[in-house]
Amino acid sequence: MVQSTRRGIDRRFAIRLAAGSLLIACLLSPSIALGNASAAKPSSVTAEPMAGDRQASSTQRLVWARFHPEDETVGLITADIDGRHEHELTHPPSGVSDTDPVRSPDGRRVIFNRETADGVQIAIARVDGTGGVTIVDTGCREPCADDIDPGWTPDGRHLTFTRVIGPFDPITHDAASALLYTAREDGSHLRRLSEPGNDGSAEDNHARYAPDGKYLVFDRTRRINGTVHTAIFRMTPTGTRVQQLTAWALDATRASVSPARRGPTAGLVVFETNGVVPEAQADVATVPAACRSLDLCSAGIRLVTSNTGTSKSSFMASWSPNGQRLAYTETPGGGRAADIWTARYDGRHAFQVTRSPLSDFFPAWSF
């Protein structure tokens, strides 16, 4: 069984970012877990936020989370892709955290976790700031503890999320179940996505569909010889043809499929390494979703960032609307705040978006 509830984790993570004791900011090299993965060549920092992307739109915006230590809140920020014209999108009350925004397929809204002292709610806000925050009632009732980690189906008509179901183990705090579900925004048409038979033996999180809706990728967490590990999997929307894309040793998390339907990033899955490893350095990497075996998938992994030998960590990546660039969080080390960066999918033309004294993380790229 896995320690399944995410209640409060993102808020504590934000506090660690601000305090300079980031969980993954130490210098443990990911090279062993990556095996023969190709490292990204160090790229010069560009002064152009969309360098190398001729199809970029000047109307695109970024949404991300910012930690405010004075009242221990995490609110969502929106700005132009170069970091200008920044304003607050959500204004959570003291002690509440809005985290992990995911853009809707039409780019007009984001769905996110709203974490309170009592649990996690799924919330939606418009990127233009109108209409306030809508709390989604997905029908989580006992023994359901929380519905967390929301996303969208490609048509934007349904939500995806992980449903955490009790009871919880009194020693390990493992939930009885934490698996993927989908429902409409009003909570109707609830349907399980995860395949049958793995209740209590694994946790499925972070469901993200391919743009054509034919498959989705997700993170699976499992205890192996007493140690928690994560890997990226793909499957059909009916929970069949489940395939592992990354080795357990890589501890890959936060998988997301490129929205591109053609070109070099079509079918490419971005993820972060060492996502659950304490005091481990993280990198952003990609793996092709169409690889036929775990060995072929491992051979196809490419690093977007290459932080080995530095104090940096890079993680929480999301795709630009056309799949040509990535937005991600980077911590420079030394107790300094985390910032939002963007780069091409191959790691070139990196651009620093934020330079706030506060920590910025969980970027999402909107239209």
Properties at a glance:
single chain, 367 residues, mainly beta, Neuraminidase, 4-stranded antiparallel sheet, 6% helix, globular, disordered N terminus
Tell me about this structure:
- The protein has one domain (9-366): Neuraminidase (6 Propeller), CATH 2.120.10.30.
- Helices cover 6% and strands 41% of the residues.
- It is globular and about 50 Å long.
- The protein has helices spanning 9-19, 31-34, 294-299; strands at 61-68, 73-80, 87-88, 97-103, 109-116, 119-126, 133-136, 144-152, 158-168, 175-184, 191-192, 203-209, 216-224, 227-235, 243-244, 253-257, 268-272, 284-288, 302-303, 313-319, 325-331, 339-344, 351-352, 360-366.
- The chain is built from 3 helices and 24 strands.
- By secondary structure, the protein is mostly beta strands.
- The N and C termini lie far apart (40 Å).
- Strand 21 and strand 22 form a beta hairpin.
- The protein has a 4-stranded antiparallel β-sheet with strand order 3-2-1-24. A 4-stranded antiparallel β-sheet has the order 4-5-6-7, with no helix packed on it.
